[in-house]
Amino acid sequence: MVAVVSAPTNLGLRPPVRGGVPGTAKAPEALREAGLHRLLHAQGAIDGGVVLPGRYVDDDGRRPAGTIRNQAAIVEHARRLAHRLFEIREAGEAPLVLGGDCSLAIAAGLATRVGGGGGLVHIDGHTDFRHPGNSDGVASLAGEDLAAAIGMHLPDLTDIDGLGPYFPARSTAHIGCRYEDPHAEELRGIIGLVVPADDVILHGGARAASRVRALEGLERGYWIQVDVDVLDPRHVPAVDSPDPGGLAPEELIGLLAALAPHAWGAAVTVFDPDLDPDGAHARTVARVVAEGFADLGAALGQE
User: Which of 12, 117, 208, 218 could crosslink 141 through cysteines, CB 3.0-4.6 Å?
Assistant: First the structure.
């Protein structure tokens, strides 16, 4: 059974303008307004509650060296959300987290470690693999979450409560980056699998999912982290960093439907209602989530 959790965080994103606040915190309620909860509840999903983040602060020029934006608030929220995810997993249900931004991957990693392990499937229009070893511009975890999830970031983020690294690199897959992504080649040499968006468009989501399931260490399932910016901006431009060359909604639904039964949980992130004034893109995202995750966790325990 799917348990729907709201985690309306925007802590990992850069401000849209100086002193501004990213709109992703509004996403769970915008998706509710678009009918997502009604669709999920009709499929048997239950309410998993909400885990609220701390206040977003535009601290550019003021935060200490060697830290990222909203770092303390991100760590505190990750601990609380991880506890909720662990409880849901232990109850035999599959958490579906509606974010927020993709700093939520840290909470999923903590819950994975204390819950017995598993892999990570990172579905995103970008690799999100900026880290201190390849960039002087480390600042926003939403562009660095995959690096942090496998232990390649600041220790205060990658080893919370001594639990890092949260996901083994060999049990981690990335799907959806564009070929020109600056960190794709580095990432291929580190994690188990990298599948660019063009490969999914050409060969289909079922093939990508079968390649994921061939990785080591997925006996207890995996976490799916899907950023809406994997979709082409012709379909959903309401994200902070839209790039051409992404998936169509039907292609993403097919990919998620092939992956979801073997996942213990998932998160949907980076949709920004501030960029969707009439709600049309929220309705598209709601349909993708409801159809793609209809069978989330259904195959675990049956193999």
Answer: 12
Q: Three-class SS string for the chain?
A: CEEEEEECCCCCCCCCCCCCCCHHHHHHHHHHHCCHHHHHHHCCCEEEEECCCCCCCCCCCCCCCCCCCCHHHHHHHHHHHHHHHHHHHHCCCEEEEEECCHHHHHHHHHHHHHCCCCEEEEECCCCCCCCCCCCCCCCCHHHCHHHHHCCCCCHHHHCHHHCCCCCCHHHEEEECCCCCCCCHHHHHCCCCEEECHHHHHHHCHHHHHHHHHCCCCCCCCEEEEEEHHHECCCCCCCCCCCCCCCECHHHHHHHHHHHHHHEEEEEEECCCHHHCCCCHHHHHHHHHHHHHCCCCCCCCCCC
pLDDT tens digit at each of 303 positions of the chain: 999 999 999 999 999 998 889 999 999 999 999 999 999 999 999 999 999 999 999 988 888 888 999 999 999 999 999 999 999 999 999 999 999 999 999 999 999 999 988 999 999 999 999 999 999 989 999 999 999 999 999 999 999 999 999 999 999 999 999 999 999 999 999 999 999 999 999 999 999 999 999 999 998 899 999 999 999 999 999 999 999 999 999 999 999 999 999 999 999 999 999 999 999 999 999 999 999 999 999 998 665
